[in-house]
């Protein structure tokens, strides 16, 4: 709270009469060990870890305020990286007497985070506000839209073979590519119950825990980047095909999480991780295979090309690049990382190229677009 920060600042200034913004490590250690402020145990651990990791013999006041306010900063990462030297408490799994919600938070921490210190920090810092609403809202809207079209068409599988389905203002169709919203809105439409069920299950099982740990802003950015990359990739590589389904966003989330698990295999403590990894890869590959089959060998006569599968692949690329960096940067500022700006620049370059392609390439290449429904 502000009162704690003010009181802590006054104590700090007593040891820094010249107002330099720094005090000696020895003085700060004494301050932390004998303070009477009500700090979270995890914050106290991080303060001591920050002291132990300091090699210059001085502690910066601004870094302490950033750490106490849970602001993503380099000081947090330094404290985390060196915190094992001073954190002697039992691991999070050994804590008893937890309520149902805190047990779920602990489960999420072990599902998503590879470092025990990160897991403990998240466990103690977690709050119900703001709740992980983005993935839940997207899923609910997708189900409502599917139910509406299912009732209207009286068809619950292979809805894309119905002409009225393809007339929806939400479907991306190359003949309507000037309607920019379709590059995003196609994520609310699905081929059938099987695609909706697969996407909804994956984005709830993986997306909600990711949003709880990394926040709504980062996970919504990753999901929507996968969705946009999906439709743009289809407009470049499969120029005559429409697109439906949220697979671009779903595969961005899943690929990022799976890549993070593989790269931090030894630190991940989620149970049966090898079996679950194999099962996830088999399910994702099967979904791509089903999409390829529907694209090139449609089981029913249709009036035009069936939806493309390229959104799945481009979503996976977004997840492995942008998504992996986001998941590896827990409580770190992305803006201060050079690799983040490289990825952002690459994505913007791809976006500009795709816009140019959609404006000029169809006419230059003489692509015969099926008439829009």
UniProtKB/TrEMBL annotation:
<feature type="transmembrane region" description="Helical">
    <location>
        <begin position="339"/>
        <end position="360"/>
    </location>
</feature>
<comment type="function">
    <text>May be involved in regulated intramembrane proteolysis and the subsequent release of functional polypeptides from their membrane anchors.</text>
</comment>
<keyword id="KW-1133">Transmembrane helix</keyword>
<keyword id="KW-0472">Membrane</keyword>
<keyword id="KW-0378">Hydrolase</keyword>
<dbReference type="InterPro" id="IPR017213">
    <property type="entry name" value="Peptidase_S54_rhomboid_met"/>
</dbReference>
<dbReference type="GO" id="GO:0006508">
    <property type="term" value="P:proteolysis"/>
</dbReference>
<keyword id="KW-0720">Serine protease</keyword>
<feature type="transmembrane region" description="Helical">
    <location>
        <begin position="248"/>
        <end position="266"/>
    </location>
</feature>
<dbReference type="InterPro" id="IPR035952">
    <property type="entry name" value="Rhomboid-like_sf"/>
</dbReference>
<feature type="transmembrane region" description="Helical">
    <location>
        <begin position="183"/>
        <end position="204"/>
    </location>
</feature>
<keyword id="KW-0812">Transmembrane</keyword>
<feature type="transmembrane region" description="Helical">
    <location>
        <begin position="133"/>
        <end position="152"/>
    </location>
</feature>
<feature type="transmembrane region" description="Helical">
    <location>
        <begin position="308"/>
        <end position="327"/>
    </location>
</feature>
<dbReference type="InterPro" id="IPR051739">
    <property type="entry name" value="Rhomboid_IM_Serine_Proteases"/>
</dbReference>
<feature type="transmembrane region" description="Helical">
    <location>
        <begin position="278"/>
        <end position="296"/>
    </location>
</feature>
<feature type="active site" description="Nucleophile">
    <location>
        <position position="247"/>
    </location>
</feature>
<feature type="active site">
    <location>
        <position position="312"/>
    </location>
</feature>
<dbReference type="GO" id="GO:0004252">
    <property type="term" value="F:serine-type endopeptidase activity"/>
</dbReference>
<comment type="similarity">
    <text>Belongs to the peptidase S54 family.</text>
</comment>
<dbReference type="InterPro" id="IPR011992">
    <property type="entry name" value="EF-hand-dom_pair"/>
</dbReference>
<protein>
    <recommendedName>
        <fullName>Rhomboid-related protein 1</fullName>
        <ecNumber>3.4.21.105</ecNumber>
    </recommendedName>
</protein>
<dbReference type="GO" id="GO:0016020">
    <property type="term" value="C:membrane"/>
</dbReference>
<feature type="domain" description="Peptidase S54 rhomboid">
    <location>
        <begin position="178"/>
        <end position="328"/>
    </location>
</feature>
<feature type="transmembrane region" description="Helical">
    <location>
        <begin position="216"/>
        <end position="236"/>
    </location>
</feature>
<dbReference type="InterPro" id="IPR022764">
    <property type="entry name" value="Peptidase_S54_rhomboid_dom"/>
</dbReference>
<keyword id="KW-0645">Protease</keyword>
<dbReference type="Pfam" id="PF01694">
    <property type="entry name" value="Rhomboid"/>
</dbReference>
């Amino acid at each position: 709270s502000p009162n704690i920060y003010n009181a802590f600042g006054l104590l700090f200034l007593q040891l820094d009469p010249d107002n330099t913004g720094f005090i000696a490590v020895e003085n700060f250690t004494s301050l932390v060990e004998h303070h009477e402020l009500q700090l979270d145990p995890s914050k106290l651990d991080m303060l001591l870890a920050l002291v132990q990791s300091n090699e210059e013999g001085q502690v910066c006041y601004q870094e302490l305020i950033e750490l106490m306010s849970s602001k993503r900063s380099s000081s947090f990462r330094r404290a985390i990286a060196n915190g094992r030297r001073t954190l002697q408490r039992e691991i999070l799994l050994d804590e008893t007497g937890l309520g149902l919600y805190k047990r779920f938070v602990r489960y999420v921490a072990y599902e998503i985070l590879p470092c025990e210190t990160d897991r403990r920090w998240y466990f103690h810092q977690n709050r119900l506000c703001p709740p992980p609403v983005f993935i839940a809202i997207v899923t609910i809207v997708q189900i409502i839209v599917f139910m509406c079209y299912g009732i209207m068409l009286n068809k619950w599988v292979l809805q894309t073979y119905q002409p009225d389905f393809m007339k929806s203002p939400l479907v991306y169709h190359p003949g309507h590519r000037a309607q920019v919203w379709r590059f995003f809105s196609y994520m609310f439409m699905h081929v059938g119950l099987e695609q909706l069920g697969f996407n909804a299950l994956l984005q709830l099982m993986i997306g909600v825990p990711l949003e709880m740990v990394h926040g709504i802003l980062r996970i919504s950015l990753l999901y929507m980047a996968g969705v946009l990359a999906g439709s743009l990739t289809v407009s470049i590589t499969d120029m005559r095909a429409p697109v439906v389904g949220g697979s671009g966003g779903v595969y961005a989330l899943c690929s990022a999480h799976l890549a993070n698990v593989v790269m931090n295999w030894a630190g991940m403590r989620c149970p049966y991780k090898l079996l679950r990894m194999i099962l996830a890869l088999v399910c994702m590959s099967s979904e791509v295979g089903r999409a390829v089959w529907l694209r090139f060998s449609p089981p029913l006569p249709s009036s035009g090309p069936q939806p493309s599968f390229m959104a799945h692949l481009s979503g996976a690329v977004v997840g492995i690049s942008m998504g992996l960096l986001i998941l590896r940067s827990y409580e770190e500022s992305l803006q201060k990382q050079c690799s983040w700006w490289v990825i952002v620049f690459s994505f913007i370059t791809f976006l500009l190229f795709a816009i140019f392609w959609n404006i000029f390439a169809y006419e230059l290449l003489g692509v015969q677009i099926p008439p829009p429904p």
